[in-house]
Design goal:
The structure is a single chain. The protein has 123 residues and is mostly helical. It has five helices and no strands. The relative contact order is 0.12.
Length: 123
């Protein structure tokens, strides 16, 4: 019977620790879910750039391409390094003087694949 108060005290302590830690764990998982949702929204905005007809032409629009600028600004906000690098690669290749659709197509294809992966929420 001497162990019963010790067992009760230990169980109460464990219960208190779990009760105090639960809000912290809940906040961390909610923040993680919020970040993922934010990244999905960014990926969807990038996919909207590609939904326009003649997307590759708009990316090649000379030194002042609005589509390329928007892609760059959205791409640097991505936390996924592969997706961010794919966007940067496409912006760089499309910004080269004399670049053609055939030259930027591999970078475009890689960007679509990476952004789609982020949009689906896969790592």
């Amino acid at each position: 019977m001497a162990q019963s108060p010790i067992l009760t005290l230990a169980a109460g302590t464990v219960g208190a620790v779990i009760g105090l830690a639960a809000p912290l764990i809940n906040a961390m998982t909610a923040r993680l879910g919020g970040r993922r949702q934010q990244q999905r929204e960014l990926a969807d905005q990038i996919m909207e750039i590609f939904a326009e007809p003649r997307t590759l032409d708009s990316l090649l629009g000379g030194a002042h391409s609005a589509a390329r600028r928007r892609l760059y600004l959205l791409g640097v906000r991505l936390t996924d390094p592969d997706a961010r690098h794919a966007c940067e690669e496409l912006v760089t290749s499309a910004g080269q003087p004399g670049a053609s659709e055939d030259e930027i197509f591999p970078a475009w294809e890689k960007t679509i694949a990476e952004i789609s992966r982020v949009s689906r929420g896969r790592r």
